[in-house]
Structure formats: C-alpha cells, structure tokens
Amino acid sequence: MHCTLSFKIILRGLLCLILFFLPLTLAIKPLNLESGSIDKHQPGVCATYGTCGKKSFFGAELPCPATVPAKSLNENERNLLVNICGDNWSETDVCCTGDQLKILQTSLKKADSLISSCPACHNNFYQFWCQFTCSPNQSEFVDVTSTSKSTSNKEIVSELNYYVDPQFAEDFYDSCKEIKFSATNGFAMDLIGGGAKDYKSFLKFLGDEKPMLGGSPFQINFPWDEELPENMTQFTTSLKKCSDGDPRYRCACSDCSDSCPNLPEVSLSGECHIGILPCFSFAMLIIYAVILLGAVVGYCGMSLWREHIKGQQERRRLLFNTVESEDYDSADSYLTEDRFGYRQFASFGSTTTTKAFPLNNHIQNGFAKVAYKCARYPAITISIMLAVITALSLGLLNFSLETNPVKLWVSPSSESYQQKLYFDQNFGPFYRSEQIYLVNDTGSIMEYENIKWWFKVEERIRNLHSSAGITLQDTCFKPTGDACVIQSFTQYFGGEIGSLPEKSWKEKIVSCASSPVNCLPSFQLPLKKEMIFGGFRDNDILTSRALISTFVLNNGEENSAEFKEGSDWEKNLEELLLNIRSEASEKGLRLSFNTEISLEKELNKSSNTDIRIIIISYIVMFTYASLALGGRFPSFSKNSAIKSKFSLGLTGIVIVLFSVTASLGFFSMLGVKATLIIAEVIPFLILALGVDNIFLLSHELENVNRNFPNDSVEERVSRAVGKVGPSILLSSTCQILTFTLGATVAMPAVRNFAIYSAGSVFFNFILQLTIFVAALALDQRRMEDNRVDIFPWIKLDGTISLDGEVFPYSGTLNISDESIFSEFMRKYYAPSIMRPKVKKVILFIFFTWLAISVALLPKVQLGLDQKLAVPKESYLVDYFNDLYDYFGSGPPVYFVVNEVDVTTRKGQQTLCGKFSTCDEFSLNNIIQQESKRPKISYLSESSASWIDDFFQWLNPNLDECCRFKKGTNETEMCSPNANPRSCDVCYENKDPQWNIHMDGLPENEEFMKYFNFWINAPSEPCPLGGKAPYSNAIALNEAGTEIVTSSFRASHTPLRSQDDFINAYDAAQRISRSIEEATGITVFPYSPFYIYFAQYGSIVQQTLILLLSAIILITILSTILLNSPKTSLIVSLSVSMIICNLVGVMALWGISLNAVSLVNLVISVGIAVEFCIHIARAFTVCNQLSLHENVDLSKEGRAFKSLVGVGGSVFGGIGLTKLIGVCVLAFTSSKIFEVYYFRMWISLVVISSLHSLVFLPIALSLWGGKAYLSNDSDEGLAGNLAARLHSSRLYDTTDEEDED
Known about the structure:
Layout: H1 6-21, H2 31-35, E1 48-54, E2 61-65, H3 75-85, H4 98-115, H5 119-134, E3 142-149, E4 155-162, H6 166-176, E5 180-181, E6 186-187, H7 189-192, H8 199-207, E7 219-221, E8 273-274, E9 277-278, H9 279-320, E10 335-337, E11 343-345, E12 353-354, H10 358-376, H11 378-393, H12 405-409, H13 415-427, E13 432-439, H14 448-462, H15 472-475, E14 486-487, H16 505-514, H17 529-532, E15 533-534, E16 546-553, H18 561-586, E17 590-594, H19 598-628, H20 638-643, H21 646-669, H22 676-707, H23 713-742, H24 748-784, H25 820-833, H26 836-855, H27 875-886, E18 892-898, H28 905-911, H29 923-930, H30 934-937, E19 939-944, H31 946-953, E20 963-965, E21 983-985, H32 1004-1014, H33 1027-1030, E22 1034-1036, E23 1043-1052, H34 1058-1079, E24 1082-1086, H35 1090-1093, H36 1099-1122, H37 1125-1148, H38 1155-1180, E25 1181-1182, H39 1195-1224, H40 1231-1263, E26 1267-1269, H41 1276-1292
Parallel strand pairs: 4-7, 12-26, 25-26
Antiparallel strand pairs: 1-2, 3-4, 5-6, 8-9, 10-11, 13-16, 13-17, 14-16, 15-16, 18-23, 18-24, 19-23, 20-21, 22-23
C-alpha cells in the first residue's frame, strides 16, 4: 500500500529522456537528402540532426530528418558529452548539438533514481541512448521512415526504424531486468520498460508513441525479422553484465541474480508415492498383508495339526472300540434352546468368575443408597437440586459471547499472537480492506456498458455516507496525504468515465494494463493488472471474466476512533453492495464482496438460523426417547396410556437443559467466555449423551420390576440404579476426562467448548442420579396407581398389567414384555454372529477396515477453510470462490527485525542488498534469492528495503533527493521545489565520496541525522523519499534517536488453498530461521493470516498425544472399575479402531484436521467408550441368575449374554438416539456444522455401533478377561438359589481358564 508521487517525476524524466534522444541536430533544410550529394546510410553520416519544432503546442521538440556528416563540438559541449556518455566520446565527431546534450543530461538523470543501484545497467542505458542520439555513424542503424510538419511548418520526424542487434538488445535487457525499486516493492523494469518480460517488449515500450502518457513523442520501431536496407547494419557495442568482473560495474545481489550467493538446497518433506499410493499407505497395506498371510498360514497349520490329532484319536477308538459322541464336531452343539426361546450356550463346566469385586460392590451400594433417598424423598431431592441449578445459573449474569475471530481462534499465549501484537504496536494495525468482484460467469466482462456502469457504482461508493456522516474520504488510507487507495481499473482514468471514450476504450485500457506506470492513479501506486482484472487468458485483459475493486481503509485498535469510523462506514457499504448485487443480477452479472465486518456478521447470522435446527433436534430426540422408553411402540389402549413415558422423556430433556445452564452459569462466573458454537452445539451434544443413561436406568428398572415385584418402589429404583450406576459412572468419567483433555488445546474457541462440555456432562451426571431418579420413582408410582401419563390426575379403573409386576415371580426371567431391540438381539442377532465361521469373517472385515483406515491417514488434509464458517447461502461463499479463482496477487509478508544497531556498518551490512559490501547472506540477499524459487519459498517478490533506499537517497548524482539549504550547516532541508542554486547536494563534496562500496556512508549520530531527514522527505521530486513508503515500516524510540525495530515487506505468491496458506507460513518461518542463522539478528515473519495457520505446524503431533493420552486414561480407569486388564485392553482396542476408522472417513469425506476436528476426535473417544463400556461391563459382571439352568459362564457364553442383556439398550438407547439427533444436523445452513459435526458425528455413531455390537462381543468371546459376581443381595430369592447351585458346581469344575 506504500506508494509515492515520484512516478510523475519518473514519467516526466523518461519523457524528457526520449525527447532528448531523438532531436539530434540543428534544423536544416533537407537539401542533402534531396540532392543525393551524400549517401543516406554510411559511416560518419547522421540520420537526424537538431530540432525542428513541436507536433502540438504541448508536445516536445522533435528532431529534423537530415542526411549530414557528423560534426565536432566545442570544448564546453565536449566536456558535457564526456560527462554524460563517458571518456570514449572525448574525440569523435557526433550527430548531436550542445542543446541536445543538455536535454539528454536532464532526461537521463530522471532515470538515475531507478537504475543507479546497478552500475552495469546504468552504463548500458546511457550508452544505448548516447549512441542513438550522438553516434557519428547514426545513419547506419537509424532510418527515418516518415515525417510530418511541426507547428512552425518545419519537417520533423514522426517515425523511424532503429536497427539493433538482437544479442545486444537481449544483453541490455538482461542487465536491467532484475533491478529492484524498493519504494514500490517492484522492479525498475515496471517503470522504464512497462513490465517487459523480454528485450523485444522492453525496446517496444521505449519506442511506442505515447506522448500524453509519458512515452515517446514519435514512433520508434525496432525491426527484428525484416531484411536490413542496403548499407545498413544492426547497432551493437560492448556492454557490461550485471555480474561483470570489473567491480566498478558489478551490481549487487538484489539487482542481479548472477551476483547472488547460492542458497542451500531446501529439503522438503515432499509426498512419497509408490504408484498412486503414498509410501506410508503402501507400507501399511504390505504390513497388513504379511500379518494376514501369517494368520492364514498359522490357522491352516493349526487345522492340520487338529486333523492329525483327530486321526490319532480315531485310530485309537477303532483299536479299542471306543464310542464318542456323534455331535463332537458340531459347530453349534453348545447352543441350546431354553424354555423361553433363548438360543444360549450350554455349560462346559468352566467359568472365570470370582465371588465378588469389592470396589464394584462399594460403588453399587453407594449408588443404591443415593437412589433410595432420592426415590424416597422425590420432592425434597428435586427442590434441592433446582435450588442448586438456580444458584449456578445466576452466573449467566456474567455471560458474554466472544465474536472476535482472532480472539476465538488464536491463543493469546501463542507466539504468532504475540508477534501480531508486536507488529500492531510498532507499525499499526493492518489496514481494513473492502473488496468487490463483478463477474460474468458466461464470458468476458469487458463490454463498454459494463465498464460505464461500474464507473457509476464506484462513484456511488465514494459518495456514500454512514449514519454518523462518515465518508470514504474520511476513513480511507491516504499514503500521499490526500488521495484514497482504490485499486480498480477506473483509477487508471481518475475514476472519470469521461476519460475513457467509447471509441477508444479498449486501446486505452490495454495500454494502461500493459504499462501501469503510464496510468498512475491519484495515490501514485502502479496498479498491477493481476489485482484488478481476473480470469483473463493469454495475458489479454479484454478476455477478463471479473473486475476487481479494493478500497483500503485506516484501522486501529478495537474501540479506537479509526476502528469505529471504519466499522460504521462498512455497515452502510454492505447495505449498498447488497442492493447493487441485485442490480448486477438484472444485467446478467454476479457481484460478490467482502467488508471487514462481513465475516463476523455472517457467523452470527449462521448461529441464528441454526437455533431452529437445534430445537428440531431436541423435539425429534424427545419424541423418540418418549416412544422408545416403553420398550414397544404405544397403542391406544388403557394399558398404553398408563405405560407411556412421555413425561419421563420430557424430564430427561429438561435435565439436559438444566445441566447446560448450570455449566454456562458456573464457568461464566469464573470468567470463561462462551462462543456461538458452545451455545449451539453443547445442548445437542449433552442431549445425545444424556439420553443414553435415561434408557439404561429405565430399562434396568423394568428388569428389576419383573424380578422383584413385591419390593417397594424405592427399593426397586435403588436396585436398578445400583446395578447400572457403575456403568454410568465409568462412561461419564471417561467423557469428562476426554473433554478435559480437549481443554488443553490452546485455541480459545475450542478450549472453552471443551471446558463447558466437561461441565455439562458432570452436571448432567449429577442431575440424572438425583432429579431423574426421583422422577423415575414418581413415574413408577403413577403407573402402579393406574394414572395416565402426562395427565397424572386422571386415574383409570380396573387392573392393569405392568410388565408382569403384579404377578409373583415365576422364573429366572420374564420376557412377556421384552423390548423390540432385546428380542431381536436374543432371537436373531446374537446367535448369528457368535458362530465360529462368522467370527472369522467378521474379524477379517474389521481388521481389513482398520488397515485401510490407517493407510488413508496421509490423505487427511490440514486447515479450516473459512468458506465453511459461513452459511451456505451467505454472499461470502461466492466471494471466497472468486478470491481463489480471480485474484492474482498474494498476501503481503513482513520480515520484522529488532535488536539490530543499524547505525553501525556491521548492522547495515546484515540488512542491505544494493551495495557490493553487503553481507553475502544479508537479510535482503536471502529474501531476494528465495523469491526466485517461489514454488519453495512462496514469495513472489523480494523485500522493500528501506535501508537501501535511504542510502540511495544520499547519492549525490540524484541531485533532487537529499539537499540542504545553503548556509544552514546541513541543519535544514530544501523544500522539494526549491531553486537548485539555493541548495547544496548531500555528499557532493564528501571524502570519501558516495559509492556502492558503502565507503563514507553515514554511521552513528550522522546516520540518525540523515535518517530523520529522509523519513520525513516527500516522494516528489525524488522517488526515494521515505515518508510515503516507509513511515509505517520503521519504529523509533520516543526521543527519535534510535531505531527500535523495522520491517521489510515482501509478497507471497497467490495462495489458492489451505495447503498453500500452511506451506506459505512454514516457508516464511524457514526463511526467518535461515536469516537468523546467517546474520545472527532476531527476525520473524508476519502476515495477517499467520495467526490462524501457526497451529498446523504441530497439530498432527498434538492430535496423536491427546488421543493416546485419552486412550491410556480410559484403559487405566476401566481397569480399575472393571477389575479386568484383558477386558479393558479390548475396550481400548475397540475405541482405537473406532478412532482410526473415523479418521479414515475424514480422509474420504473431505473433513480436514484442525482445532475443531481435533476436539471432536478427543470427544469421540469418550463417546466411543460409552458405546463399548456397557457391553464390556455386562460381559464382566455376572449375577447369580446367570448361574441357573445351565447358563454358560465361559467367554463365549458371557459375550452372548452381554449382547442379549444390554445390546438392545446400546442399539436402541445409544445408537439410534444419537443417530436420530445427528441426522437433523444435515439440514443446517452452516457448512462448518455440516462438515465437522454432522459428518463426523454420524460417522462416529455408525462406526461405534458396529464396533460395539459386532466386533467387541466377538473379541471378548475370544480374548476377554475374567468375570466377577455382582452383590449377592441384589438378586433376591432366585439369586440366592442360583448362588447355591453355582457353589456346588464350582467344586465340580476341573478346567479353569487363566485369570488376568
């Protein structure tokens, strides 16, 4: 954004330069040409000589066509010629006059400020125009092809051919093409050659007739492919290369890549592929294939061995005539039918049970006692807990939402955030940017009607007033003090359509886009076509599909005047652009835009629309819970009206809301700020988690009702809670721990989300074991009193059978009202998957799935595309797409340097780049070299070097730059327009003189003296003045006596994807480290987007650490509460497989790894545990009833019983509940909700359900640990009988399995 008024001066200089190169001789009559007395093209003859007037009143003096011999000069003219063109002109005749030499000198001085830093280019540039203007053999390579009449009616040159040797032209171009012009952070070639990319374009730019745009006043053609006219030759002479061996002409690294040191090769962690597969994926698949092959070979070997043993037994049987059971080999011989229809395991007389696990009994007793009190005194329990909730909810008075994106997504303690603060404090906050795209999706946007309309649109924007009366002029960024920075093609023409007539609009726009220096806007910064035109082909801007306009505003700290004024004006701008968007649509065009306030505003809009989705999700889950809690779908009978669970389901929903409210209030009191994601996601998440426990408690109470019909309600509720309490404790504790681990993520939005979630789960756990237990007892009393659900004051007459509770106990298990899910598990599912052959197939499928998921890990992308953060219908979606598709420039990057004493020569040499004694690996040299490998460095240009421009400003040859008033002893600067006679040029008489070796350049106090003059110097007439380009790039101490810190601005290549942004950040960090290693100075890179992408340098490592920590915690906790390391390890294995499979889905479904998905992964560990832990505990804990009627307590038998016992609750209460709730998120308008919550959570629910109900039971049946008996007192009379039977069997057991 830093720009200067200097380009006007440069243009005037170039114009004068061209004007002077052309008029070569005094005006003479073309008699010699007519008479033919002198051959037109021969050595010693001129083609032009003098000047013959102007083409127009405002034009320049043009040369006369003349075929005359070269002439000599007087002594003063000769000295002037030698001073300009060098000693080799000291004796020769010439084709120019003394007046021409004066014009030539003045004109060439204007180019000095651009090319003087490279002596080779400076020499070649001077020689090229000296030869064109004064060569005694001019006619041999200059051919006048057209003439016209001047205003004084004299014949003047209007067109000529200048024949130049192609090799000479290429060497000339090569010597100048890399010269850096730091004030614009561009190249001198952009100014002297129109941004030419080859020698033909360079010379064409110099020769094209553009008298009103700073170009040549007449046409100079450079024929390349034409046959030379008779007696003519191509001009050539010896040139200096920018890397010349003569140190007088050798250019510095910043202006000549051949003079630069070679940077070390960068070892990039490029992707390794074998065919289409990443090497890691290929290796994982090979390892799995080897393991699978080993398993198959081992299995075949064991089968053969068994056949061998069987053969021996058969031979012995035949030998001894022994009879064995014919059913010995039956795969299903252990499956029997009981009288209730169970397909169950026949007992082999082997168990792995112990009498009891004391810790489990203590926990059960503790839960039972609490439940008994809550059931006994429901009113008191509910009242106390409501009082606690109310007290905690008072913290909501301190509730506040954080909406600032930086404070949401960046940790205040992170290095990148601290660097942002440092940059803002020393150089000011980054500018506010308002960017607009006008797009034609069907073809080129470049039609005059579109052009004319866009001029009017921009005029409306410039005239826009905010509600406080603020205009663009009041709040825009003005580097030159009066003109706003508006980057738009309209600024080529001052924003006035009258300057772009319809008959010539194409030519003018193409001309300005090709040579932006000729069409400078009022703020004097050349407008690159890549920043204002988009989607053009073959470098032809007339094929552009988009016009780009960018308005740059001042910025300040939050709540500052600049911040408030900018925000206020942007609100009105947004409203105006939304209206203009409709106007564009009527014209068949599309308008997209972004203001500084847009993202935050659209995020809030997304949150408001998603509230409806959350409410619908609650209603759907409430309806499902109410229907499913009864075990079967209700009918319209009296019995159904009483057995309905709508009121109980509603209580569960309200408890979830209470837990969220309590968590919000509690942490708000502690000053933890909430986010919109917290307000939207946590209620849904806690509902999905909390409903599971409601199902478990309700279904367990039904079992207790059947087994203990004569106990009081309080006792039955106590038994039920005591039975499932340890499972709820284990799952809730795991969830709280995993949420707490998520709180270790540094990103505030994510950390606070995890904190509030952990609190909500904790409060939900407490409320479910108090309020819900009390409600459960009340609901049970209501049913037994024959009162209608929802309307308990209505009591129905007659006797109602409630799950058989009114009947005396009639067996080990009453299944007359078995739930649909449990019945399905018992009759069909469990018997099917527990068959030996089915087990092998299932294990193969799951382990193959795991291997594929691990192989997909490298495919997981990093990043969080900001398009996902806004609603699908937001206008920002189109803007982000257009930004990636059409904007041809990358974001700026600043290399910030501190702790460098720039007043010393050593400090100067570590930074500079334009002087021969700069350190070989100085800061500017390294950045210069890095910019030449953009695919690695992601830099498109080298840095704007203030120290080089400062020293160049002191160059006495640039006599319009540093000037002191005579007689002031160098204490007062001359004004820009002061008479040269009243000024002394700095360093003009210094000893040693100013030179590129830095001899005599200022140090210490002298440095600061000149620096303070330079930093306040305007850019006109000298383009190297520091005020406009560098006033915001250098920070002084309060006294102005010391440079505290400074920045060197470069630019990234266009960044099109999240990978580009991440790689650009990594490359900038690498470059900074290399600068520090080479120079010993302290430097860091800064760009506005860095704070969002710093996290990706360590996110993979952080993810692995968090997930491994969560799984280790779960293993330890489940081992303690299950008392079975084997079973705990299998649970951890299942959870690990679930997470791996989930990451595989992320790779396939476009879910990137970022802080949001990282926390979701950690949360997923807790949810996966909830799916698995109930099956595992049912496998581990056996009641006395399981020992009755020959029920097998081997691993296979317990796995079967765990599926039948709690599999239905896991599927119907956990899986389906979450699935139904998550499916509602598919209708959200927020893309971030859809990708990172719907996609991840629905995948998690499906994967977890499959692992918990398919893989886990089979794994437990093969590798599960020991079992232990639950508290004997929990099973009543039947349990005591079963205990006696079990005790008698234990004495008969001969084969016992190894315990853990």
